[in-house]
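Work Package 4 report. The design task specified in the project plan requires that, given a folded chain encoded as structure tokens, an amino acid be chosen for each position. We show below one input record used in the internal validation round.
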């Protein structure tokens, strides 16, 4: 093997790993899928949609006449929750375990498909009793407890549109999302476990809603940590007093293929998060198709584990909808990888015999930092496939992942996709594709991607450009909630003449024609696989009375991929207390957005480098943030330093 490299953009030294013969012999995918999709793309997707149970068949696969809003499986009707739960029970798999749930403090619960159906039905009955009707929005602000998944499925069953808000988000961020979606109900827990301590969560909901709220009628609370909770009589309801007592009999009604399934907020280039809207039939089709082929998932045999949180799209598509539609048996883990110690993930893999493990590069790099003696202390031989998502995986981490976790035998699928795409778009097919450290390799059968320059001209191999999707796909976003204009501007105006979707990522094809995703080309940072906009952090900083102006950049970081580095100018009269002020500003950002948005560094500077038109020169700041130790910030304000950097 060639020497490992830490540069994810080094496309010169990769070694390809052809599929193993025995893996290929039983693989779900085969090379013919590419030919089938190329011969008739829509017929191919129609075939994939037949994985699902449709109460009424569609009359047309795709109507693209209202582009960029797609209409897939026109006239078809289905119930998403029925597809994820009931039909497996009716097919005789009610006793199969759907979820091996592992709580952070060490408690655990196995939930069969039969039990899941009963719980989802109880929740659906109670939400109906509360007066919720198809089309209403429900905010779900919960840690990784089974009731979070039950809540999502109960919404899907009733045609309620859920908006899951990551439980690490602040009350301000929750409020923004609840308001934007006009939610009638918030489902939460009393508290959440984080490395052995119970942190309050219901209290954050109260803070977010503040007294009487325009649209929220009720807050439904699951007891998890037993912390004391503030309580508003009449508005607040305990899950165990209501849902638990509801009837487990509920008949699911079918909804239109284009019925809104969920809204999920993601960061854009401005301070205001975008509510990405997904619908039912096309979304579930592509989630199920990709989960089957990309993870080579075999129902009744595999034990699957996706380590994401349901607060992100990966949790939606690859914990809830894709795996459950495919009758997976999966691990759902509540806590962090180092609770109570760094062995936790490997103990879980061993305990349940996990065979498919899907995680983010940032965690692989963290494992590397902890050292191989930790995974080496465990029997990981049940693993047969590894996945990566969220950010480019650097070849060194890829190789370590394959060798140390995968015992040099497992294929690695590096899956590129976005909240907006709904499901995986670019990935190797295990058993078919020769994988290559750092490369997402190729668009999946049925998906079309190109690497183009600013004018939309397709680039030759070796040249870096912009990633575009030039054909609609079933799980594509159907819009930004309440903002059709922003939807067009953000994704479609850049290549309006061609009708292409602009992903916001840079990419290149290498000499073999394999695709490498190079990271964001806009003002969106990627910290540990989480998208955070520079504008959002800047606005949190200037929200502090001491800050007059702020500029934020993502600087490369060995563990988190990128880290947030901020440069701030203080208001006249603000006392520069140095480290104390920096610490205060960091926690202000954590509180305003989330701890994941906490800057790694904040530099207090007398001025910011600007162009003549007044635009902050972020590129220069990024060079500074990445290129030198900034212990002494006084050098920063010296214009000669900037001149020197600009020349270099
Ligand atoms: C699924 C998810 C999307 C952004 C995307 C890109 C980055 C995700 C990647 C990847 C390189 C991969 N990204 N997967 N970059 N290789 N395999 O992460 O959705 O949170 O919306 O982030 O993440 O920059 O544009 P989301």
């Amino acid at each position: 093997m060639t020497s490992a490299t830490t540069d994810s953009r080094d496309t010169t030294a990769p070694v390809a790993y052809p599929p193993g013969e025995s893996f290929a012999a039983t693989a779900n995918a085969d090379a013919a899928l590419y030919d089938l999709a190329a011969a008739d793309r829509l017929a191919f997707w129609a075939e994939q949609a037949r994985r699902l149970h449709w109460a009424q068949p569609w009359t047309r696969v795709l109507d693209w006449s209202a582009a960029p809003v797609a209409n897939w499986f026109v006239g078809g009707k289905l119930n998403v929750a029925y597809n994820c739960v009931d039909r497996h029970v009716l097919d005789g798999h009610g006793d199969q375990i759907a979820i091996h749930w592992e709580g952070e403090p060490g408690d655990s619960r196995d939930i069969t498909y039969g039990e899941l159906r009963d719980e989802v039905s109880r929740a659906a009955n109670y939400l109906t009793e509360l007066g919720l009707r198809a089309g209403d929005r429900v905010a779900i602000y919960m840690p990784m407890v089974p009731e979070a998944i039950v809540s999502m499925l109960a919404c899907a069953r009733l045609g309620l549109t859920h908006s899951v808000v990551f439980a690490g988000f602040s009350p301000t961020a929750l409020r923004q999302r609840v308001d934007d979606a006009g939610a009638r109900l918030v489902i939460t827990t009393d508290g959440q476990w984080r490395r052995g301590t119970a942190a309050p969560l219901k209290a954050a909901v109260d803070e977010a809603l503040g007294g009487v709220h325009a649209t929220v009628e009720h807050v439904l609370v699951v007891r998890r940590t037993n912390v004391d909770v503030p309580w508003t009589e009449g508005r607040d309801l305990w899950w165990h007093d209501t849902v638990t007592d509801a009837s487990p009999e509920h008949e699911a009604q079918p909804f239109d293929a284009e019925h809104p399934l969920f809204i999920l907020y993601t960061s854009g280039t401005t301070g205001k998060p975008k509510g990405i809207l997904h619908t039912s039939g096309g979304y579930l089709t592509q989630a199920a198709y990709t989960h089957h082929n990309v993870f080579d998932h075999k129902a009744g045999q595999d034990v699957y584990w996706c380590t994401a949180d349901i607060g992100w799209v990966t949790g939606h598509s690859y914990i809830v909808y894709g795996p459950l539609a495919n009758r997976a048996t999966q691990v759902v883990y509540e806590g962090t990888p180092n609770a109570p110690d760094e062995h936790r993930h490997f103990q879980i893999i061993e305990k349940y015999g996990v065979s498919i493990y899907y995680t983010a590069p940032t965690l692989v790099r963290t494992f590397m930092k902890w050292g191989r003696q930790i995974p080496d202390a465990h029997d990981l031989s049940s693993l047969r496939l590894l996945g990566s998502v969220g950010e480019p995986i650097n070849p060194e981490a890829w190789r370590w992942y394959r060798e140390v976790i995968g015992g040099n035998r497992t294929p690695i699928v590096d899956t590129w996709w976005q909240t907006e795409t709904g499901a995986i778009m670019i990935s190797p097919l295990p058993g078919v594709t020769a994988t290559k450290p750092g490369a997402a390799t190729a668009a999946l059968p049925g998906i079309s991607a190109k690497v183009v320059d600013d004018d939309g001209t397709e680039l030759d191999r070796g040249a870096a450009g912009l990633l575009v999707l030039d054909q609609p796909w079933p799980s594509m976003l159907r819009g930004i909630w309440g903002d059709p204009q922003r939807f067009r501007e953000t994704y479609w105006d850049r290549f309006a003449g061609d009708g292409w979707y602009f992903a916001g990522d840079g990419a290149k094809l290498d000499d073999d024609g394999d695709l490498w995703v190079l990271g964001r080309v806009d003002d969106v940072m990627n910290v540990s696989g989480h998208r955070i906009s520079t504008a959002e952090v800047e606005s949190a900083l200037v929200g502090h009375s001491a800050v007059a102006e702020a500029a934020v950049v993502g600087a490369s970081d060995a563990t988190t991929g990128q880290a947030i580095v901020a440069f701030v100018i203080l208001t006249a009269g603000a006392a520069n207390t140095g480290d104390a002020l920096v610490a205060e500003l960091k926690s202000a950002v954590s509180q305003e957005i989330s701890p994941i948005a906490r800057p790694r560094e904040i530099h207090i500077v007398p001025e910011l480098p600007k162009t003549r038109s007044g635009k902050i020169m972020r590129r220069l700041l990024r060079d500074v943030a990445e290129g030198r130790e900034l212990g002494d910030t006084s050098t920063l304000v010296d214009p000669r330093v900037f001149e020197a950097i600009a020349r270099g």
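Residues 266, 312-314, 388-392, 414-419, 440, 503-505, 517, 519-520, 526, 529, 531 surround 6R9 (CB under 6 Å). Validation will be extended to a larger panel in the next phase.
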